[in-house]
Specification:
Layout (H helix, E strand, L loop, with lengths): L11 E2 L3 E5 L5 H8 L4 H4 L8 H12 L3 E7 L4 E9 L15 E8 L8 H15 L5 E7 L3 H10 L2 E10 L4 E11 L5 H6 L13 H15 L6 E4 L5 H8 L4 E5 L2 H9 L7 E5 L13 E6 L9 H13 L1 E12 L1 H11 L5 H6 L23 H8 L4 E8 L8 H5 L3 H14 L11 E8 L3
Parallel strand pairs: 5-6, 9-10, 9-12, 10-11, 12-13
Antiparallel strand pairs: 1-2, 2-3, 3-4, 4-5, 6-8, 7-8, 13-15, 14-15
Helix pairs in contact: 1-3, 4-5
């Protein structure tokens, strides 16, 4: 089933790349590598004898397709392209023609091969396509002899379907190719989301540090000599590693293997951290009443039912000592509406409204697992916590206004940045302000009974 998509306002970011709509000015960067012997042929093009030939073929390549430029953030240049094609074998095969599907094609400068950049870009498009465009499948293929592309495709999680034929219009020639498919029902969207490689750098920018510094500020209030700490949903270990550097042993539990691999690669000698792969819904590997400090800084982002949310809180409290302190992070919905829906237009908020993903009266989010994130509001958190024997200590907007003015914060000198942090710390618990934050930290003490 051929469907129309519009990427004109779409910008995707990974750890190392920005994917944005391909522009005419990007062709200069593309020409610089498109005529390298081998690259052109692998993309279905003839050997380029002149820049004029390159221009003609490349222009044909981007016409009628939705094409992202792969902009390398560190090197500040376009190093490739990724097209989301409408016409391919996915619409001709009887088994797949009924699906809302697109086919991905890509080209990358040979100078950047072997660095995992294409999988990073492809996974970003898969997540966006399955969640925002509501696609049911993505196809992808490689020429039989192209072992490099095969490795990329398999690394992204596509399943081989069949060997077929590809017709290169510019050459009027058929190539044998290997055809792969990923169905939305087969995609582990949470794995795909985190395997883009963006999570480890999320708190590294100057504006990203505000969330980290705020969270640590509150954690440090309750650390004590000899404290036992568990972090549930430890991600790539930013908090666990920092706490270990303070001299505390940490039990770190993480679900996503990619995050665990990154976590382990960043460990330093002397950091007393035990990393376990596990689920926030089942901490049966840990005894009751064990930890003084329990960090739960990510799992609630991805839980969609009240039963799962209560189970996660219940497990966190079970492993916490009576009188121990628990830190739970949430994503709030209104910042997403304002920043990503109305301002940046990262998703089509009007379409979300029409599809019933937003309550027409209250504007609550109606989230399902394919959305990856489950943003909520304070009244939902209050309702969730009402059945537990806890004392709320703080309700903190960990980034508050930060993401609204992120570029300005990144450009601040040290004196102004220090003043901004002081302002942020002074107002981040104010009831009249916390609702505009992207992230919330709910801090509470477990009852003594």
């Amino acid at each position: 089933m051929d469907i129309k998509i519009d990427i004109s306002n779409v910008e995707l970011e990974t750890d190392r790349l920005i994917l944005r709509p391909f522009e005419a000015s990007d062709l200069d960067d593309l020409y610089a590598y498109a005529s390298i012997p081998g690259v052109g042929e692998m993309a279905g093009w003839a050997h380029h004898e002149s820049i004029e030939t390159s221009k003609e073929i490349l222009q044909a390549f981007i016409e009628g397709k939705e094409v992202f430029a792969l902009f390398h953030k560190a090197d500040q240049k376009v190093i490739g392209s990724l097209g989301v094609h409408s016409h391919s074998w996915t619409y001709e095969d009887e088994a797949y023609k009924h699906l809302k599907a697109k086919t991905i094609g890509y080209v990358l400068s040979k100078d950047y091969w072997g660095q995992g950049l294409v999988p990073e870009a492809v996974k970003a498009v898969l997540v966006y396509g399955f969640t925002t465009w509501s696609l049911e499948a993505f196809g992808i293929c490689h020429f039989v002899e192209n072992v490099q592309s095969r490795r990329v495709i398999e690394k992204c999680g596509f399943k081989f379907v069949k060997q077929g034929k590809y017709h290169a219009k510019q050459l009027d020639k058929y190539f044998d190719d290997m055809q792969y498919m990923m169905l939305r029902s087969d995609a582990n969207l949470l794995d795909l989301y985190y395997s883009r490689g963006k999570e480890d750098g999320r708190l590294a920018s100057r504006h990203g540090q505000v969330e980290f510094l705020t969270t640590m500020r509150y954690i440090e209030k309750y650390m004590m000599s000899g404290a036992k700490v568990i972090e549930i949903g430890a991600g790539t270990g930013r908090y666990s590693r920092h706490i270990a550097d303070m001299g505390y042993p940490v039990e770190a539990v993480e679900l996503i293997q990619h995050n665990i691999d990154t976590f382990k690669s960043n460990l330093k000698p002397g950091q007393d951290i035990n990393i376990t792969q596990g689920n926030a819904l089942d901490l049966s590997g840990f005894a009751d009443d064990t930890f003084d400090i329990t960090l739960h800084l990510g799992p609630m982002y991805h839980l969609f039912t009240e039963a799962d949310k209560r189970q996660a809180i219940s497990e966190a409290l079970r492993v916490t000592k009576p009188g121990g302190v628990v830190f739970v992070a949430y994503c709030l919905i209104d910042a997403s509406y304002v920043q990503s829906g109305f301002n940046r237009k990262s998703y089509d908020i009007v379409e979300f409204f029409k599809k019933g993903k937003i309550d027409p009266v209250t504007f609550d989010a109606i989230s399902v697992p394919e959305d990856i994130f489950s943003p909520i509001r304070k009244e939902h958190i209050d309702s969730l916590m009402a059945c537990f024997d806890v004392e709320r200590l703080h309700y903190v907007a960990t980034d508050l206004l930060t993401h609204y003015i992120g570029e300005a914060i990144d450009e601040m000198d040290d004196e102004l940045y220090d003043l901004y942090l002081r302002y942020h710390f002074a107002v981040c618990e104010r009831a009249d302000m916390v609702g505009v934050s992207n992230h919330i930290l709910d801090v509470f003490r477990k009852g003594l009974s």
